[in-house]
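Open question from group meeting: does this chain pack into something compact, or does most of it stay loose? Before anyone orders reagents, we agreed to write out a predicted structure and look at it together. Recording both the input and the output here so the notebook holds the full record.
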Amino acid sequence: MRPDTPAENVDHTAEAARLERTAGLYPEDAEALLLRAAAHLELSGDRPAATTLYDRLLSTPGILENPSLVRALKAANLWEYGHEAEARAIIEGIRATAPRDPGPWLIVAESLETHDELEAAEDTFTEAARLLLPDTPETPLPLHPLLYGRHRVRRMRGLPHDDWDTLADTLHTGPVTLDELHDPKRVWSLGSDNPAELQAEISRLRAELGTYREALSRPFPVAVLHWPAPELAELLSAYPALATEYPSHEAHLATIESSLRELSSSGTANLGIVTGTVPSYEAFAASEATSPDDPTLLPQYATTLASRGRAVAWPPGVGVGCWCGSEEAYEGCHGV
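Structure tokens returned:
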């Protein structure tokens, strides 16, 4: 599907089938490709087929990067076509495991909100914020939607602002305030016969759409390539010419951290780390008709992985494990 294809012209069933075929050709990207295929199936109305894809992914939990996200998407999909009890059970399981990624929390809370379970949605948003928000003045960008969602649900429940609502107001940079965007009375204005009220609502919706478009247009991270020790050993064994790039695994890890700190100090934002594997790198080299021992291919490979959403944000949050794969928190390892 071309990126400029209008939404109304998309054949979601055909696009899902294409993505499934592509996943078979590129197993290292199967998770991302099959999740997109499931989304197309949901949009086509074939929710049982989407559930089948989610089950297919969950049948191989050892290779999933984010199994909690897959379970959350499955629960939201199940609830939409009448399997409420199963969806609730999955949601409770996700909350019990307390994932450290905001994605599953957001999907679960919004699913509860969609089905008018406002109190449970607020509890979920609050639980996620309590678990994930760092004890620092700066709130990471991926956590903003949690605070916005919590603000929205509390506004719908008519609850007074608390400290996290105030923080959400501070983080929101749109021309229309969160209080106005999340005002339940906006829904009533859509049924009004007053042209002035309708025009005001159109202006609000345009502002909200602009905020979403800004978020969607945000570029993928500037990413640095990381090789785990076994992968680097296999890479250098197969392609000794790359030894000049990687004199040792310890030097490789130190170079990653120093490079990211240098980029950060120069004002570069949205930094990340992508983890390479030898089969994936060889497949990329083949697609570029280039030998894998060409060092100029390495930054291109890193950029391609980042563009596919494989980058992990740097620096990690407080208490989060170090990006190098050690069992230590980042601030006690490479964050020292």
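Observations to bring back to the group:
Residues 1-6 have pLDDT under 50 and may be disordered.
The radius of gyration is 22 Å.
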